[in-house]
Design brief:
It contains 15 helices and 12 strands. It starts with a helix and ends with a helix. Helix content is about 50%, strand content about 15%. The structure holds 5-S-methyl-5-thio-alpha-D-ribofuranose and magnesium ion. Pathway: Amino-acid biosynthesis; L-methionine biosynthesis via salvage pathway; S-methyl-5-thio-alpha-D-ribose 1-phosphate from S-methyl-5'-thioadenosine (hydrolase route): step 2/2.
């Protein structure tokens, strides 16, 4: 039997995408829409549909049956579009102001119609340009605390929790992370992208047995610890910002996993930007101010997450032991250690693995870029190996000063 997906799926084009919004009766005249494909991610098509007469606009995001970043030789499940849609819906139950509004999802065609966030900027480019967002830490701390608590065993009935695990198995996208984050960058694998100039350093890096042992432990945690429904890919390319708005997008890697993975992904991308600013910021005084902003952002993220998560355990928790002193607190301490370790893995993968970051790769001065990539690898490895020794946010902020 032909699976439903294959029976009716067609890739949309700028000419056919109007059909995706016709039935919504959102626009006055779909024939008058201006359409452009604006996707710059690794996996999907993203169409922007604009109606000049009314000033209205929408986004149609469609999954392709392969990974766009590599091409048709890397087939990839269309199920990820449904996972993303369901994950956005779940997040909207608890943080509606921190995710885009979703108008429609078509399972067979694997597309979702959602709010146009063109008024926002992607956080990665905004940070590279040196822009500051005072609410960012509080918003990401709130997003993580609320989405993760409400999908964890601290809140859900065990039957509901297990149904959630089943609904969000997402094996193919998890496998991408298992390979690209937790395996390939620690070995000489052909998915890695390593220039000749940095290869001798990386070859040494791969000799570190302790690093590999600790990375293996983190990989096993990712494979086995079903703590809460994660975003699954919370880097600075998955966050849209304005001066007073933050929107988390793109949760197609969502699955029930270890909470520290979301926080660690966010932290790693702040740290990569922190390092890269040595090249992007021309004035030393500006560099210090901007790095202080990044450190403050992480402090606010962590403190907001920890405070809200513990408060939720106290006020809304259904886990019998939550009322016992220290149970929730020790869990949050464990999340802290995991966050540092996962951040280290994400730093390593974004430096030498597949899908690297513009923060480092747009540095034009080659020796400076190599030097900063080496620093990123060393810092990532230090986080992986020392995650149990950096105890708490203040110790971490001192550690950053040494970078
Ligand atoms: C083949 S997908 C490569 C990367 O893009 C996504 O953003 C994820 O981070 C994934 O690992
Ligand atoms: Mg993405």
């Amino acid at each position: 039997m032909v699976p439903t997906q294959e029976r009716s799926y067609r890739a949309l084009t700028v000419d056919t995408v109007r059909s995706a919004v016709e039935q919504l009766q959102y626009f006055e005249d779909v024939e008058q829409l201006q359409v452009s494909e604006i996707g710059d991610g690794n996996l999907n098509y993203v169409f922007l549909l604009e109606e000049p007469a009314t000033g209205k606009s929408l986004i149609v995001k469609q999954a392709l049956p392969y990974a766009k970043v590599v091409g048709e030789s890397w087939p990839l499940t269309l199920d990820r579009a449904k996972i993303e849609y369901q994950s956005l819906q779940k997040a909207a139950e608890v943080v509606p102001n921190l995710v885009p509004v979703v108008y429609h999802h078509d399972m067979e065609m694997a597309y979702t119609v959602m709010e146009d966030l063109s008024s926002h900027e992607i956080l990665r480019s905004a940070l590279i340009n040196g822009n500051q967002y005072p609410n960012l830490g509080k918003d990401i701390g709130t997003y993580t605390a609320q989405t993760l608590f409400h999908t964890s065993d601290f809140y859900l009935h065990p039957f509901t929790k297990k149904a959630l695990v089943k609904d969000f198995l997402n094996p193919e996208l998890c496998k991408i992370t298992e390979d690209l984050v937790f395996t390939d960058p620690f070995f000489d694998h052909d998915t890695n992208e390593i220039s000749d100039e940095i290869r001798p350093f990386v070859t040494q890096f791969w000799q570190d047995e302790e690093l590999k042992r600790e990375a293996a432990k983190l990989k096993l945690q990712f494979l086995t610890e079903a703590e809460a429904l994660l975003h699954g890919d919370l880097h600075s390319g998955s966050i849209f910002v304005t001066a007073n708005s933050t929107k988390v997008i793109d949760p197609e890697f969502a699955f029930v996993g270890p909470i520290g993975f979301d926080l660690g992904s966010f932290l790693a991308n702040l740290l990569l930007n922190y390092l890269s600013q040595e090249a992007h910021m021309k004035e030393k005084a500006d560099l210090q101010v901007f790095r202080d902003f990044l450190s403050d952002t992480w402090k606010q993220t962590w403190e907001t997450f920890a405070t809200q998560f513990l408060e939720l355990c106290k006020t809304k928790g259904h886990f019998t032991f939550s009322s016992i002193k220290g149970v929730a607190e020790e869990f949050v301490d464990k999340v802290w250690r995991d966050t540092l370790g996962f951040a280290g893995c994400e730093m390593v993968r974004r430096t030498i693995g597949l899908a690297q970051v513009a923060d480092l790769n747009t540095i034009e001065d080659a020796p400076v870029q190599i030097d900063l990539k080496q620093k990123a690898l060393t810092s990532g490895a230090a986080l992986i190996k020392n995650r149990n020794e950096i105890k708490g946010i203040n110790a971490f902020l001192s550690w950053i000063q040494e970078l």
